[in-house]
Amino acid sequence: MWRSSALDPAAIERLKEARRRLDLKPLVVHDNYLINMAAADRSIRARSIAAFRAEIGRCLAIGADYLVFHPGSYKGQTLEESIRTLVRSLEEAAEGLAGRRLMLLLENTAGSGSAIGGRFGELAAVRRAVSRNLRLRIGYCLDTAHCLASGYDVASAEGLEATVREARRILGLSRVRIIHANDSKAPPGSRVDRHEHIGRGYIGMQGFRRILNHPGLRDKAFILETPIDREGDDRRNLLTLKRLCRKSLTTTTRSS
Ligand SMILES: [Zn+2]
């Protein structure tokens, strides 16, 4: 929904205290899924800018490290126009807001319909177009299921190498701060966004073992966005990822 409630200062303090005590980092926020700052429709765009501004404000208040957002959809415009719209919206949303810690992370998409961000080049174009008026840094979040569905074959060894190479060249690996670890129910290149439990989709156990242990990716923060069909699925998916990390240390040799 569009409406959001104000943050309770006491809750913010409890969060900060818990993070210190448990050494929890980074703190990553995902923006509201209704937000489409690239929208040609003026009222949707205005609502999106206001909602995103509120997201930034809350992130600054709670001391978040990253705010992940989707580039949006370009219905009714060309891709180039929509990227200009998005950049203007971003600058408006963040006007007068600054934070040294917070970084905005553009997430790649499955490239379905008129979604922007199915190609790394589209994400980089947004970052390049942003002016110095925006006083927050921009980086990237890569979603493994979106990569596969949009045509980056992260399931195979060669495909993963090619994808990391392209991410390094086009985005800069140091700007890729977060990986959304999701298997894909939809086949490679299908441009359909459907998340699956780790190991049960088209990426598979071997695919995730390579992704988690890739020298260019292994130090990133991984976040699960897998389905919860039964209670405990989130915990099970997390354990699967942890097992795949450990396993590779003893049973595989790394290739460059
Ligand atoms: Zn995601």
How would you explain this protein's 3D organization?
The protein has 256 residues and is of the alpha/beta class. The protein has a single domain (9-249), classed as Divalent-metal-dependent TIM barrel enzymes (TIM Barrel, Alpha-Beta Barrel), CATH 3.20.20.150. The chain has helices spanning 9-22, 42-62, 79-93, 120-129, 144-149, 157-170, 204-213, 233-251; strands spanning 28-30, 66-69, 103-107, 137-143, 176-181, 183-184, 195-196, 221-224. It has a six-stranded parallel β-sheet with strand order 1-2-3-4-5-8. It has a two-stranded antiparallel sheet with strand order 6-7. The N and C termini lie far apart (45 Å). The relative contact order is 0.10. The structure holds zinc ion. Zinc ion binds at residues 107, 143, 180, 225.
Question: What features would you highlight for this structure?
Answer:
single chain, 8 strands, 13% strand, two-stranded antiparallel ribbon, six-stranded parallel sheet, 256 residues, alpha/beta, 43% helix, TIM Barrel, binds zinc ion
